[in-house]
Amino acid sequence: MGLDDDLDDDDDYPDDAGEDEIDLVVALYREDGTPVVQSLDLDLANDLDGLIDALRRMPGDAGAVGMVSIEQDVFVITRVRGRVVQLMLSDSIAGQDWPIARDAVDYLGLDVPEDEEDSEPVGDLDLFADAGLPEMEMEAICEESDDAVEALEEVAEKIGFGTGLSRIVATLDL
């Protein structure tokens, strides 16, 4: 692989999401059993590795969850428990447009679909099965919601973080 091939790959990579395109970047974790929802640096909406590192530093009793929403259109959920990382992306076609979505597709070892008809939620859709949110319900949330922030609020509610996330969402200018 030569230098020209590397440049071609860079041309194919989506531009970073701007602050006006990023809806939210949050961490969810439990500290002494109490649910905590904390806003994270918006730059993490363009950096999956950075998001995973930030989640590893959270003081959660059983790891931490990161939620990112861009343009109220697509979301990424990452769950980090020690060395175990689970990841899901609400819409695989978003890998064409957003770095974190491309990183998620790459992390999962998938290809970004070229045809919008092939787009679907991908990754560990059962990442919250132990918290009462089975894979089929997560898939339904992804497919039925027209608003990524509302979908994340629904997920947060089902896993016990709804109040905290709703407080943060209420402060956003969406």
What does this molecule look like?
InterPro entries: tRNA_Adeno_NH3ase_assoc_put. This is tRNA adenosine deaminase-associated protein. It comes from Propioniciclava coleopterorum. By secondary structure, this protein is an alpha+beta fold. It has one domain (22-170). Helix content is 33%, strand content 22%. It has 6 helices and 6 strands. The protein has helices spanning 3-12, 48-56, 99-107, 135-144, 148-158, 162-170, and strands spanning 22-31, 34-39, 64-70, 74-81, 84-89, 122-123. It has a 6-stranded antiparallel β-sheet, with helices on both faces. β3 (64-70) and β4 (74-81) form a beta hairpin. The protein is globular and about 45 Å long. The termini are far apart. Mean pLDDT is 90; it is low at 3-8.
Q: Termini separation (Å)?
A: 44 Å
Main β-sheet: number of strands, strand sense, barrel status? 6 strands, antiparallel
Rounded to an integer, what's the Rg over CA atoms? 16 Å
Beta-sheet strand percentage? 15-25%
Q: Summarize this, please?
A:
With 174 residues, the chain is an alpha+beta fold. The chain has helices spanning 3-12, 48-56, 99-107, 135-144, 148-158, 162-170; strands at 22-31, 34-39, 64-70, 74-81, 84-89, 122-123. The termini are far apart.
Write the layout of secondary structure elements.
Elements: H1 3-12, E1 22-31, E2 34-39, H2 48-56, E3 64-70, E4 74-81, E5 84-89, H3 99-107, E6 122-123, H4 135-144, H5 148-158, H6 162-170
Antiparallel strand pairs: 1-2, 1-3, 3-4, 4-5, 5-6
